[in-house]
Amino acid sequence: MIRRVAERALNLAGADLGDNVAVSVICVDDERIHELNREHRGIDRPTDVLSFSQLEGEELAGLPEGEPLPVGDIVISVERVAAQAEDYGHSFERELGFLVGHGMLHLLGYDHQTPEEEAAMMAKTEEILAELGLTR
């Protein structure tokens, strides 16, 4: 399911990255994501998902032929997935899919700093999930 959501996000976002890409999805507990959030964003609390793009300002030339393009890493708190699924009244799988899709869109340059960006990102995430049957 994680792979299907990630692939669908790449397709729907129109990412021109080719077919050979690498994205890692790491599932952690609240304690670890809290540490990462504090270390990388200066926010001293746990969060549900963090995305670390390898496409931002990185020189990717010189990759060995045939090697996948490293898009980035998505870190998800499994504890937040379970709690949020319960809070929102949907399945664990749907919440996990939402966070994978959300994280993928961040890796591809989407953001939600303004209400317009938030709405666009939410709509794209919901489109990804709907096409995979991960509805509320």
| Average pLDDT taken over every residue | 89
The H-level CATH homologous superfamily, spelled out, is Metalloproteases ("zincins"), catalytic domain
Say what the CATH topology is.
Collagenase (Catalytic Domain)
CATH class: Alpha Beta
User: Fraction of residues in helices?
Assistant: 40-55%
End-to-end separation:
16 Å
Corresponding CATH architecture: 3-Layer(aba) Sandwich
Q: What radius of gyration results from the CA coordinates?
A: 15 Å
Can you tell me the overall shape?
Answer: globular
Q: Which H/E pattern describes the elements? A: HEHEEHHH
Structural category: alpha+beta
Number of domains in the coordinates? 1
Biggest β-sheet: strands ordered side by side in the sheet: 1-3-2
How many DSSP-defined strands?
Answer: 3
Description:
It is a single chain. With 136 residues, the protein is α+β, with helices and mostly antiparallel strands. The chain has one domain: Metalloproteases ("zincins"), catalytic domain (Collagenase (Catalytic Domain)). 49% of the residues lie in helices and 16% in strands. The chain has 5 helices and 3 strands, in the order H-E-H-E-E-H-H-H. It has a 3-stranded mixed beta sheet with strand order 1-3-2. The longest helix has 17 residues.
